[in-house]
Amino acid sequence: MTHNIHLIAAARPNFMKIAPLYHALQGQDWCNVSIIHTGQHYDANMSDDIFADLMLPEPHFHLGVGGGTHATQVGKVMMAYEEICLDIERPDLLIVVGDVNSTAACAQVATKLHIKVAHLEAGLRSGDRLMPEEINRLVTDAICDYLWTPSPDADENLRNEGHPDSRIIRVGNIMMDSFELLSSKINSENAPAKYGLENQDYGVVTLHRPSNVDDPALLKTLIDGLVENSKKIKLIFAVHPRTKNNLEKNNLWNDIQGLDDLILIEPISYVPFMSLVKSAKLIITDSGGIQEETTYLDIPCLTLRDNTERPITITEGTNKLVKPHELSGNVDDVLAENWVHGTKPKNWDGHTADRIRDIIKDLFKI
Questions:
Q1: In this structure, are residues 192 and 198 in contact, taking their beta carbons and an 8 Å threshold?
Q2: How many CA atoms are closer than 13 Å to the CA of 263, on its beta-carbon side?
Q3: 229-280 pLDDT, tens digit each
Q4: Positive or negative CA dihedral for 244, 246, 248, 254?
Q5: How far apart are alpha carbons 21 and 260 in whole angstroms?
Q6: For 266-304, b where at least 16 C-beta lie within 10 A, e where not — what string?
Q7: Which residue in 208, 325, 341, 351 is the catalytic one?
Q8: 70 catalytically annotated
Q9: Ramachandran region, residue 129 (left: φ > 0; alpha: ψ -120 to 50; beta: rest)
Q10: How many C-beta atoms lie closer than 10 Å to residue 200's C-beta?
Q11: Which of 103, 110, 119 is closest to 85 using CA atoms?
Q12: This model's pTM is above 0.85
């Protein structure tokens, strides 16, 4: 008997998480794997190009949801995915990843249709319910049948919320599988040279969270901080569409044009981006996944947030939460080699997808 498995992809980090799993499952004679691209991120650099990098086929189903408010996105995803499950292909197992709107939306659809659902990267918590991602994490974990976690803190979070141990399985960090899957491509990409940068002589910047980029005063503070610190070390800033829009709206975009030491680029796909990260001296970010990748690569990470759903990157890794006014001092610390060298957490080893494949075989009693 062949079992149908659906993998949901919606936003850039999701693509990296489903890729190793797709490759581990594709070609198995006991399952048929379909990729559902909800279209929540619809910029080519943030979706289609990444599929090519990750050696993924065209999505088997494309929901074409696009932008909109949280409610609009969730509603459109639920209606479109329900139609697939009812009228086209009902899965035996749905696997959702991460914490975007599509994660919670598809999990709800499947649960109400009595389809088994697994959440890969379950149990991560920031404790900050002002973040929409935190709500998505809580909702998704509350209704999923299987909770696949990356780290001990995630296990503990789920137990504290009353989830039974029978649903919790620590599988490891799937993002490291993606890095190892593409390590040869990343090594040969040599992205720093394409931007006139030398290894260990620059930093990479990403900023996109509403809490940072939607507040005009805070955004100006952050931009001033980047300009100031670019005088100490060159910075390459991959400008998210949301961030660029706010910079233009608040008359800040022109202020950072043409600076020799603050290089502005559009978002780029996974391989060139990780080539930049791998050779960087430091990372300045508000992203979630990069906190993990820098821990894996032993690169200092300055995270411009008040909290993180990935505390293991602080307790065991190279990450530190930094307030905007603390940025300059922390950059100085990195440049002075005053930064902790972390360790790779257990099961962050590039074999998470293989473990999940074996777990699914057991679920289906193969």
A1: yes
A2: 15
A3: 999 999 999 999 999 999 999 999 999 999 999 999 999 888 999 999 999 9
A4: negative
A5: 41
A6: ebbbbbbbbbbbbbbbbbbbbbbbbbbbbbbbebbbbbb
A7: 208
A8: no
A9: alpha
A10: 12
A11: 110
A12: yes
